[in-house]
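Standup notes, structure subgroup. Blocker cleared on the adenosine-5'-triphosphate input:
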Amino acid sequence: MAIPDLTAMLLKNITIDPTSDAVVIDGVSKIFKKSRPLWGRLRKKSQGKDQKNEIRAVDDITLTVKHREIVGILGANGSGKSTLIRILSTLLIPDEGTVSIFGYDVVKDESTVQRLINRVSVEASFFKKLSPMENLLYAARLYNMNGNEARKRIREILTRLGIKPDRIDAPLENMSRGMQQKVAIARAFLTSPILLLLDEPTTGLDPRSKIDVQNFVNELRDVHDATILITTHDMDEAEALCDRVAIIDKGRIVASGRTEELKRAVAALHGKAELVSMNEVFMHYTATHLITEEDVERYGSWEKAFEVYEAQREEEENN
Ligand SMILES: Nc1ncnc2c1ncn2[C@@H]1O[C@H](COP(=O)(O)OP(=O)(O)OP(=O)(O)O)[C@@H](O)[C@H]1O
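Run returned:
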C-alpha cells in the first residue's frame, strides 16, 4: 500500500544528520516545589524551620540515544520517568542541563523539535464523542495527509492493534481505557515520527495487545528508521523490546546497559553462576526494601509486594 512519505513532508526545511545521535541529554535536572496541605504549611511556619520543600524529579541525568535505537527508561512510580519524557517533548523546561534532538535544542529550537517527535502517554487528549476514525482523521489533517490515504492507513493501523472493525466508527467514550490507549498509540504511528517517546504505552493493556504494540514499535524502527525512547514498569517488555535500558531511581540513573549485561553484572554481585532476571536487576538497583518469599506470599505476587513498599516509600517522602 502506498503510504505518503509524511516524514519527508514534516522534515521540509529541517536538516537531519542520520549519523548523529538522536537524543543527547546532558546533566539535566528538574526541580518541583513540594505542595503541602495547608495544615502542614502552618505547622512548618510555627516551627520556624527551614525544611526541604523541593523535589528533584530529574537529578543530573546524562544519556545518549543513537539513531534507530530502542532505549527503555525503567523506574518505579515517582522516579522521574514522565518528567524526563516531558522535558524531551518540550512540555517542561529543564532547570539545569541541556537536551538536543538530532542536534536541535529542546528549549531554543522548540518548534523544530516538536516536528521531530511524537509522544504517547495515558493522558492523550481526544474528542471523546467522536470515533477513533474521526479522531485520527483530525490528527491526519493537522499533518496535511491526504484524506483517502489517511483513512486507509488508519484502518490498517487500528486493525493491526486489534481494534474490531465495528469499534473504529463508534464513539471513543464507549471504549475501555486500554482500547483508548491503543488509539493514542495509533495516532503516534500514523505520523511516523523520527523520535517516538512512549510513556508507559502498554500499561493496562492485555498480553495480546502488548505484543501487538511491541511488534509495531519494532516495525517503526525497522521500516521507518524511527528512534524510540520508552518508559515502562514491565521488565519483560524492556527485555523483549529494548536494545538498552537505563534504570532510574529518585530522578537519577542508577544503572544502564544492555539487559543481558545488567543481568550478568547483578548475578556476579550476588555470587550467582546463572543470570538473574530483570526483576532482580531492577530490585537490586532500586529497592529500599528487600522483598522476601513471605512478602510474595502475603501480597500475591512479587510485583504487588513491590508496589506496596513503593507506595509506603512515596508516602513517607511526602510527609
Ligand atoms: N508538576 C509537578 N509538580 C510537583 N511535583 C511533581 C510534578 N510532576 C511530577 N512531580 C513529582 O516529581 C516526581 C517524579 O514524578 P514523575 O511523574 O516524573 O514520575 P514517574 O516515574 O513518571 O512516575 P509514574 O510511574 O507513577 O508515572 C514525583 O515525586 C512527583 O510527585
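Discussed briefly. The beta strands are 23-33, 54-65, 70-75, 96-101, 104-105, 117-120, 195-199, 227-232, 244-249, 252-257.
Next: hand off to the docking folks.
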